[in-house]
Amino acid sequence: MYNYFKVLSLFLFMFFYLLQSVISAEEKIKIGLLVPISGSDKELGEQIVKSTRTALKDIGSDKIEIYLKDTNSNPNTTLKSAYELKQIGVKIIIGPVFHKSLSYLSEIEDITFLSLTNKTLDLPKNVISAGINATSQLNTIKKFIKSNEIKKTIFLTPKADYELEIKQSIKQSKIKIHKHFTYDKDPTKLTSQIEKITNYKIRKQNLLDEIKRVENSDLIDKEKQIKRLKKKHTIGKVKFDSVIISDFDESLKSVITSLLYTDVSPKEKFFISFNQWFDQSILRETNIQPIYYPSINKKNLDNFERKFKKEFNELPSFLSLLSYDLVGLIYYLSLKSDLSDVNKLFQRKNSFKGKIGIFEIENNKIYHKLNMYKVEQNKLIEIF
Question: Does 305 lie in the same domain as 225?
């Protein structure tokens, strides 16, 4: 009789174990999607929805379920929507898009948010920045500087809301900087600041003094030397080999123009900027070239744009590509580990190859291994 109950108990144990395995195999991967589907950022939200839909189609697994909720780009709406996602058992959420929407998310326990923001300061503990952050870019620039044996690099940062973010990223990347300067974006102040950074007035005076010395000399080829000197703008070298400019759009161009005015040329010094997202206007302006910057993989972006255009008859935003990759990232991690404890997924060291490039994950942080590009003679050239 004892043996009978022993066998029965073993049978029941095996039955429930197999049943549990079947249930676990059939469990869905529930992914929340918190994006603006109303308000001024509605179009961006709609593109992200389309992008995640494309990712689901490409992955081809019926295990993934996406649950969409609106943020309205508003912290209160975001919080309410996040609570609703928690009630249906969602443990991981793609979004919100903007840093301002993260304000109250620390109130929600047992959920991890993969925000599309590239800001890494002042994040709630349950939020991971998945955007192309400054540290990822500086890690790529650091590799470029090392490969080109650049000895002295100065760093120029505008007085902007991301100034502290840049300073923190310089520390995290451990990039070697000779000097770090902040400047005013106001064009009336910018040029004088760049003049100080490049010792322009001293170098200009050196030229005037040299012209005067030659004029008062008894040199045989005096006229020839004076003619040669008058073609110059300054005499004397600047104390750096490269300059990193953490700026964008017209403000970036203003800084480069001021450097050109002070007789510092990109043909003689390395001009490096942050990710310009393949800005076509930079491609057209040969006077500011060559210029170098880190970015996502251009070929992958082009392929994604063609695919998106064919399916939805519109071009995607860069954040759409990021959201596409995040769906793939979550699915990849789910194959390696149990999604029931999401926190542990992003603690372990992992890497994932997406459309943007390689995601490197560790200690609840996501960094991107980016490509380095050069713009020269109206062409975009991949360095690595």
Answer: no
List pLDDT tens digits, range 155-190. 999 999 999 999 999 999 999 999 999 999 998 899
Provide the Cα torsion 249, 254, 259, 265; round to 10°.
50
* Residue 325 contacts residue 359 (beta carbons within 8 Å): yes
Q: Is residue 281 part of a domain?
A: yes
CA atoms within 13 A on the CB side of 261: 16
- Number of domains making up the chain: 2
Q: Which amino acid is at 41?
A: D
Query: Could you say which DSSP state residue 76 is in?
Result: H
CA angle 343, 347, 350 (to 5 degrees): 120
What amino acid is encoded at 162 in this protein?
Answer: Y
pLDDT surpassing 80 at residue 349: yes
272 and 140 share a domain?
A: yes
Token pair for 100: 């301002």
pTM: 0.88
- Give the largest CA-CA distance in the chain: 124
Q: 309: which 2 tokens?
A: 């255009």
CATH of residue 140: 3.40.50.2300
CB 93 within 8 A of CB 105: no
Q: Which residue has the tokens 């451990």?
A: 174
Q: 3-class SS at 126?
A: coil
Are residue 290 and residue 360 in the same domain, yes or no? no
Among residues 193, 225, 190, the alpha carbon closest in space to that of 211 is found at 225
